[in-house]
Amino acid sequence: MTIDTNSLPFVEKLLGPRRADATPWLIWHSADGERIELSGRVFDNWVAKTANLLAELFDVQEASELVFDLPVHWKSLVLAVAAWHHGAAVITPDDPQSATAALWISDRPAGAHIPASADVLGVDLAALALSFTGDLGPAEDYNTEVRAFADDYYPQPVGGSLSALRTANAELSYEQLFSHPGRAQGTILVSSELGMERLLPFAIGQWQAGDALVLVGPGVEITPRLLEGERVTARHPEH
User: Fold this and answer.
1) Could you read off the pLDDT of 140-197 as tens digits, one per residue?
2) Are the beta carbons of 116 and 81 closer than 8 angstroms?
3) Shortest CA distance to 34 belongs to which of 213, 220, 212?
4) Full residue range of the structural domain in which residue 116 is found
5) Total structural domains within the chain
6) Which of 35, 69, 135, 182 has the most Cβ atoms closer than 10 angstroms to its Cβ?
7) Contact 69/93 with Cβ under 8 angstroms?
8) Paired residues of 105 in beta bridges
């Protein structure tokens, strides 16, 4: 049976063609030498587990607002794409509506900056952290919980006019975010200094083009060895 990909939910249309792919989709480098490689298959698996977690623990659904109080990291990309499976809005803490958002996702889950009325999901960004190692407060522990959820997620279509990504100064709908594939460039080096609000649209566009991303965290030295080892063929214009 032929599947019309134009009729699929936005995230399913993005991930479906690479679901069985063992080639790199996202590679993360941190300043302490951590290297995490996620193939299309592995990235999709993380997204599915996370989407199920968001639905079952927090009832995330279409038009839910999720505050991403996280730096750029491979886990924050997984969480954002999982939120979009539901048709939720990923918003930054500087957005005026963040104070009334139902869910905050944070690597500082016990921080006083998080409204007391919000549900909180704590995320430890350390590579091998099987649980949150700092002060979790009353938050749910992403690192502990996520592995228990199902490996597949079956999304429903979401409205293209809904807000997908919002900051204090800008907003992108689902149609705007997912309707601008980039130009295929191969394997692209990207710096975490872009910030979530700029990295996310760039990542979606280049993944739609079939590219892989090499994402480097703060303080990572870009050496010829790194570029050659990851077979980098292009850099983000601002890197």
Assistant:
1) 999 999 999 999 999 999 999 999 999 999 999 999 999 999 999 999 999 999 999 9
2) no
3) 220
4) 5-235
5) 1
6) 69
7) yes
8) 68, 121
